[in-house]
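Hi team,

As requested, here is the filled-out complex form for the flavin-adenine dinucleotide run. I kept the field names the same as last time so the parser does not choke. Let me know if anything looks off before we queue the next batch.

— J.
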Amino acid sequence: MDAAGTDYAAFRAEVREFCLTRCPADIRALVARGGKLGRDAWSRWQRILFDHGWGAPNWPREYGGTGWDLRQRHIFDETLAESDCPPQYHHGLRHLGPVLIEYGTEEQKRRFLPGILDGSVWWCQGYSEPGAGSDLASLKTRAVREGDKYVVDGQKTWTSHAQEADMMYTLVRTSQEAKKQQGITLLLIPLDSPGISIRPIRTIDNWQHVNEVFLDGVRVPAENRVGEEGQGWSYGKFLLHHERLAGANVAPLLRQLARTRRLIEEGATEGEEGRRRALEHRLLLAEAEITGVRALGHAALEATLRREPLGNTAAVIKLTSANLMQRLDEIALDATGHRLVSRFRPVDGNAPPEGMEWLQNYLYGRVRTIYGGSDEVQKNLLARTLFGH
Amino acid sequence: MPFTAPPLFPGDLFEGAARLAASAEGRLSAVSEAPARAAVLDALWEEAAALGWPAVMVPEAQEGAGGTLEDLVAILDGAGRAALPLPLAAACGVVPAMLPAEAGGVVLPFVASGEWRVAPAFAELMRDPRSPAAAAATEGGVLRLSGSVIGMEAPPGATHTLLHAPVDGASGLILLPLDEGGPGLRRFERLDGRPSLDVLLDGVTLPGTALLARGEAVARAAASARALGTLLVMVEAVAAMGALVGQTIEYLSTRVQFGETLSRFQVLRHGTVDLYTRHEAARALVVSLVTAAAETSVAELDARTLHLAKLHVGRAAREVAEGAIQLHGGMGLTDELPASRLTKRLLCVEFDYGDGAVHAALAA
Ligand SMILES: Cc1cc2nc3c(=O)[nH]c(=O)nc-3n(C[C@H](O)[C@H](O)[C@H](O)COP(=O)(O)OP(=O)(O)OC[C@H]3O[C@@H](n4cnc5c(N)ncnc54)[C@H](O)[C@@H]3O)c2cc1C
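And here is what came back:
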């Protein structure tokens, strides 16, 4: 119980009870085995949360938020992970939603927030381009104003979920003259607009989840522009600030640790004591390191509650937990690889061997140190704060 | 290419293999569905057979070319630089090595002519620890098989398996046809794109003649065939590592971010040097082993040295693969770069012919 009278233990129990009884068994099983989440599972789960009034824990109450404090939101995220429930699909709720709430017009809020809240409209993020990855500000997709429309030409890439999304929030260049960061504008583009074509990108994990999105003379109503023309970059920064604490939730790491421990204990390595002991030792070392990130996450939460600045903590947590997750993935690979790498893609309609998700997650997990600010880019930023230049 | 590792054994075999592997690259990247890929792989195997590769290690007495270990290594080096997804080491090297002298005549002429496509299987290695390994018992004049072989690398359209498994408790070598009415088969592609099979043996019976040999000689041949397989996997790994270092340098030298080629960023230069040093050490190790084996025989290589080498190269291959992915950024995760074929091949090295745990136990 805290000063405001919130009983956090009771809150945690309530969320847990909800997760265990209301999240559909097939979805929890999918999460438990490390399967790939898609729109179907995610939107069903979002609808269930929405119906319970828990659709948007991170939004203000007036837009359908829960009114929870930061600690409750943290407990909510943690409990979801601990109970094998999907984390909430982030593109609408965590990325676009807060920007719309801060900078959108009333009409835009009315038009777009409800579909995000109940999970009926699916969003994807069109930022990266073939020539603009780490250096996002060099993006070239052009939007030219013609009357009450923008005409958009260019290409996005790596667009996760575009193959199943309805809308793409998109950074486009509206001015060639301004300094790189300045001529960038945020547009909301319906993916069924004429002139859009989507091509899947094959990835090493054998899952289909990223795409190239080609925009050829796509006409987007000017009322789909968020905020001011040329200010898209600063909305991205706002978001960065807003989302800083997302990494403070180490529950996914702890969950993965527990799953990997169970994998090793449950005889995936039966009869091979040497392998088992070596894996258990590596797992213990990883667990020891997780205690450090966990402490960092906790400190970050407390600091935020006290309204103190976070400094470098968010970047340190992102760096450390991405690498720890990869280490866990690698331990699982060493527990299962000898029966999985040789049977990666079934031919003739066979079922994939049980547990193939371990290998797929290992492969996919290499992205953790690449996207959302690669390790190298994060270290550049941290070094700049340490050295002062 | 700014960095190219020199061929281990230069010559026509290396060049021919490098050419076929390079042509496979384009042909395979044009298709993604399994049946279409299987057709390309089948055609590639026919080309490999036309080049005489399955005959290279078959003695002349058995209608082969009677080639040397260096010949095979030259082929694997050339093919490995583009991760040609064919089980060349297994089908062209390990199969002849598994057969004790007196049993060779039954199989090898057909391997050499290309008429049979034979996949080697080791019951003790290719098993799911949670279900019974392959084994056999003699009963009257027949051989009763049981258990299963898991994830066996196999030439496209494999006609037979040469199976090392316990027969009545002793080492046996069984020739198992893979035709209709034979064992249950499940087809897969490995992570590196090579074809593989699960072979389900419960209830399969074979005439007694399918047991080619049994006893000490079989066990000895199987051990040296496994040693050869281990050595050849390392040869392929070195070939792939060297090529991947070259491709990473090329990628970083052309990709521009923040107005500079990525090759200007010191951390990426150092990252590339890390891959290069891994390659250099692994290459020296493999050259020393191949030289020693060529002077005497694979069977006479010091076992512990070989286990330590596999431990080393398995780790190195993975580090080079992971490092190259990171240096390529998002492109490292696509299936659409030649480099990806190399990284996926390198990630298999740890698991082929015994993973680190197996070799560590044997070396300890
Ligand atoms: C699976 C996946 C999903 C994705 N989903 C989305 C999505 O939904 N929407 C979207 O917009 N984007 C998405 N991305 C794109 C992602 O944000 C980019 O991959 C990321 O920004 C890195 O850019 P890049 O791939 O072009 O690599 P590059 O920027 O080309 O980097 C290559 C290498 O160079 C390093 N490097 C770059 N600059 C420097 C520097 N200054 N100093 C030192 N090292 C440097 C990098 O760290 C990396 O190791 C996704 C990517 C992947 C792989």
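Two things worth flagging: Residues A 124-128, 133-134, 158-160, 210, 367, 370-371, 374, 376-377, 380; B 255, 257-258, 262, 265, 267-268, 326-327, 329-330, 333 surround flavin-adenine dinucleotide (CB under 6 Å). Chain B touches chain A through 53 residues (CB under 8 Å).

Thanks,
J.
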